[in-house]
Amino acid sequence: MPLGYLSRRLFHLALILFGVSVLVFLMLRMIPGDPAQLLMGEYATPEELARLRAQLGLDQSYPAQFWIYLKNILQGDFGKSLRTGAPIVDEIGVRLLATLELTLAAMLIATFFGVAAGVVSSVKQYSVFDYGAMFFALIGVSMPIFWLGLMLIYFFAVKFPVLPMMGRISMGLEVPSVTGLVVIDALLAGEFGGFGNALTHLILPSFTLATIPMAIIARITRSSMLEVLNKDYVRTARAKGMHEAVVILRHALRNAFLPVVTVIGLNLGLLLGGAVLTETIFSWPGLGRYVVDSLMGRDYAAVQGCILVFAGLMAVINLAVDLIYALLDPRIRVHE
Amino acid sequence: MKKWVLFAALVIWMWPAALLGADKPVMGGTLIWGRGGDSVNLDLAQATDGESIKAGIQVLENLVIFGKDSMDVEPQLAESWEVSEDGLTWTFKLRRGVKFHDGTPFNSQAVYDSFARIIDKNHPFHGYGKWMYLSLSLGQVTEIKIIDEYTISLKTEKPYAPLLNNLALWLCPILSPKAMAEHKDQMGLNPVGTGPFKFVRWVKDDQIVLERNEDYWGEKAKLDRIILKSIPEPSSRLMALQSGTVDIADDLDPDSIDLVKRDGKLAVIERPSINVGYLALNTEKPVLKDVRVRRAINHAIDKDMLIKTIFRGLAIPAKNPFAPSIWGYNDDIEPYAYNPEKARALLAEAGFDRNTELELWAMPVSRAYMPEPVKTAELIQAYLAAAGIKAKIVRHEWGAYLSKTSNGEHDMCMLGWLGGNADPDNFLYGLLSADTAKTPGAANVALWKNKEFTELCIEAQRVFDKAERAGLYMKAQEVFHREAPWVPLAHSTIVRSYSKKLHDVPLRPNGLNSFQMVWKEK
């Protein structure tokens, strides 16, 4: 791996994060709404409000506030939540892991089923399966997540109670936290009951979250595969007498995979920051809901921290996608 | 085979509910309490939201507390109290033999530290918190004195009868001094009190786990554990209750409450709350200065229809500034009846110019006392139009809304009050006296400065006999009615929806209860 390239990309990452932090800082203060007033609501007297503003450091000038914010961030201190008074790092950390668990599960499902459906559709183009899969893909993209989530809960947790409807693990169960991903922690602790329990809790929310990316991945895979299947090297591979499965999976799919990787990367980034609806319906204690709540309460420190985390994740995913390109296709070389 | 298992499970499940009348309390069990959001701060002296209070009052206790189903003050950690002749010094005799959850003994030092940290800038714990609603807690207290290990006195600058109700509020909890020293500004994550339940664990945005305090000084809690579970989506909350995943589901919407009522396994308690939603008429504006116009507006609005359509029946119409569940309520007052004819006549008498357009400010957030503010504003706009008053709906972001209305920039604005310490003073003096009508920062957003009314309220603060105070408040409500600075709209009903497996579920008019006596069928 060219180290020069990597370090340059990491430098860009730092620049992006700085730019994002400036922007977020300014935008938050431009939108109307005073955190102190929102915190105290209709009970506040003017003296109490003024006191609270001073305690929160909101009475200082914007440049002064920004300077403090920047200084702290460079020292790895994201500050304390205006609402709860707890350190932002702790507040974000535990929720980020919850979101990560849900998102990764959803992306695994979306990728597996999406790619499988796309490949089969392209190989059996214009078959019943192709039409069926693409019909479902269309429904998947257009399905309101909110409605789907509630319907899934109604059928699988209320009408025929086979799956849990909310949370990451049954209430009262607890697994020692190592990675923060409950499913993996349960495995690490050797608690197979807890593992199964956490896994069943993941099913409904991750399927709900997976529908849209799954549909997109299926469609992209199909069209990309169709393009590749007519290429000369596929014909050559078949002519050499290779097994059809090898032709499809090694020769065709590998070449068709570039746009799919882009879509997966893009969706992973989107889901990490935007699983608000799914998190809300399934009471999943993730970051999406936290950002929305923080924004509504004008919890400046919390929103700033979250956006920085999102920007960082997005940049890292982009980098990963670029690196995977080079791995998949040796013709794409990173330019020194 | 599967069907049989399901059927058997169903029978076993229904059995106790159907056959056992289940009136003998049993110990044990976990209560799962589904609610809309997470708590913010469990050091209740710093809490500003209902979800924090709901959880915190299971763990923390006060010197005095409201009754189980009423807003009358009763002893809790104080066994008795008396007020000095001059009305300035309150002396509390404390309960003996009480221990905090961390084993620290409860005594006057603990009360001192819990209170002094709020009001005394030199107290070592003062810097650990943001003490927000001083006016509702200890703002009037100037001195706290330890008399002996189990006696403590509070002194106020002027006689202030509502102090007792303030002390019963969540804002004045007694916490372990040892824990306060140890947890510093993170006390809100580690509450240590004397209550029937101990704090165990808090997974943010997910759940708070409490367990029975085996060393409780009073009757021990029946439940082993309470888990407060955040379920932000109301439909999910309803389904969680229907499927038995949770035992209580808070804040369901009116349609869901109908479903709960029709479900044989579930129960609903309804109780009039202590809140009030109102339309304040800015008495400083030339048009609204005329009491005839204000009365006309009162006659123009059909509150029954408002309650039917907006509150879906879950409210009672308001005629006074506070709810009938609070003492001192004047029920003899004849409300302004819905009568558009009369409204038009009054307007004509006042020489109201029909081309005047009044601004009607609609709250941007919904509250229990104002569940659908924009629809409410539209309804009021229509009623006013029918009476011949043009109104334009104005909206602002919540923070701006509060600061602009407290600055008197509106003609008419919708607002409400959750009820505070349930003392009439909190509503009458707090929201309607001349003292609180000073801009900027007026809590009296009608900017109504009535001398007679204000004097009655101040006198009532200095009198310690409840009957005598009630008499003064009755008179004040007559003045309020005559002068009509508000259109009092509604007092919402509070509702608790729960599984019939639960028994002795309490509901105070402010919706905040200890679950000490609640028990659950096996």
Layout of strands and helices, then pairs:
The complex is a heterodimer of chains A (336) and B (522).
Chain A: H1 3-30, H2 35-40, H3 46-56, H4 62-74, H5 88-123, H6 128-142, H7 145-159, H8 182-188, H9 192-229, H10 232-239, H11 244-274, H12 276-281, H13 287-296, H14 300-328
Helix pairs in contact in A: 1-14, 5-6, 5-9, 5-11, 5-14, 6-9, 7-9, 8-9, 9-11, 10-11, 11-14, 13-14
Chain B: H1 2-19, E1 30-35, H2 50-56, E2 64-66, E3 73-75, E4 78-83, E5 89-94, H3 108-119, E6 141-148, E7 151-156, H4 163-168, H5 177-183, E8 197-203, E9 207-212, E10 225-230, H6 234-242, E11 248-249, H7 254-262, E12 266-272, E13 276-281, H8 286-289, H9 291-300, H10 303-309, E14 315-317, H11 340-350, E15 357-362, H12 373-387, E16 390-395, H13 398-405, E17 412-417, H14 424-432, H15 451-462, H16 466-483, E18 486-499, E19 502-503, E20 519-520
Parallel strand pairs in B: 1-10, 1-11, 15-16, 15-17
Antiparallel strand pairs in B: 2-3, 4-5, 5-7, 6-7, 8-9, 9-10, 11-18, 12-18, 13-17, 13-18, 14-18, 19-20
Distance between the termini of chain A: 11 Å
The number of distinct helices of chain B, counting runs of at least 4 residues, comes to 16
Low-pLDDT sequence parts of chain B: 13-21
Helix content of chain B: 25-40%
- Poorly predicted spans of chain A: none
- Give me the Rg of chain B, rounded: 25 Å
Q: Oligomeric form of this entry?
A: heterodimer
Radius of gyration of chain A: 24 Å
Q: What does the overall shape of chain A look like?
A: globular
Helix content of chain A: over 70%
What composes the largest sheet of chain A?
Answer: none
SSE run of chain A: HHHHHHHHHHHHHH
Query: Could you tell me the mean pLDDT of chain B?
Result: 92
Strand-pairing-aware structural class of chain A: mainly alpha
What is the number of helices of chain A? 14
What profile does the largest beta sheet of chain B have? 12 strands, mixed
Strand content of chain A: under 5%
Distance between the termini of chain B: 26 Å
- Percent of residues in β-strands of chain B: 15-25%
